[in-house]
Specification:
alpha+beta; 209 residues; 6-stranded antiparallel beta sheet; globular; two-stranded antiparallel ribbon
Length: 209
Amino acid sequence: MDASLFAQKVGPTLLHFTLAENLPSIERNGLLRPITLARICDVPIEHLMLRTEALQLHSAEVSARLNSQAWLVAGRRQADHFLDGHSLEGWSRQLDERLFFWPYRKGAAFAKSLTDRGDFAMLEMDSRRFYEALRDQIDLSPINSGSAMRKPARRGNWIYVSAKADWVEFAENRIRRGLTASRDTVVEVSLKSDISPVLLKDLRIENAR
């Protein structure tokens, strides 16, 4: 996959949602994964796992309130049925090693999950520039990998397919496993690295709110 195909498949823009109160720290420090924030704030990663409420992290350098993982915890009783090679705790941890982005048409559902926690902000990024700068760290998923509501889709490390892979490798990933009958589309884009303030400024579309 190249930048053009990536932009075609996810749309021209990617969205990242965060609580509005996090913006000053993001503008100073860039977009940092929960695991990075925990290290900076000297908080054991175990304290982040399976959090059912938003969690405040603070240090001299950063201040951030993390979203809860209530949508994942909702599937606790079904974990053996939808997780391959992970405990629920292990899946929670790997989520905190990523930053998550949404194709424009898929972002509304996730945004609704933030409305009970106060004002939220939407960071809009140019998909082509995002791919060109970060291709080695981008994974694609056909599901919201952090949600286990209702009848959660089966998942394991295999649900994440590198954005550098051939498109068919992603689109037919679940067909090959006998889980679906038709090709997948991109529901979620995740990043296995932080984004520096300088790069974030370059990726963002200026008229985004």
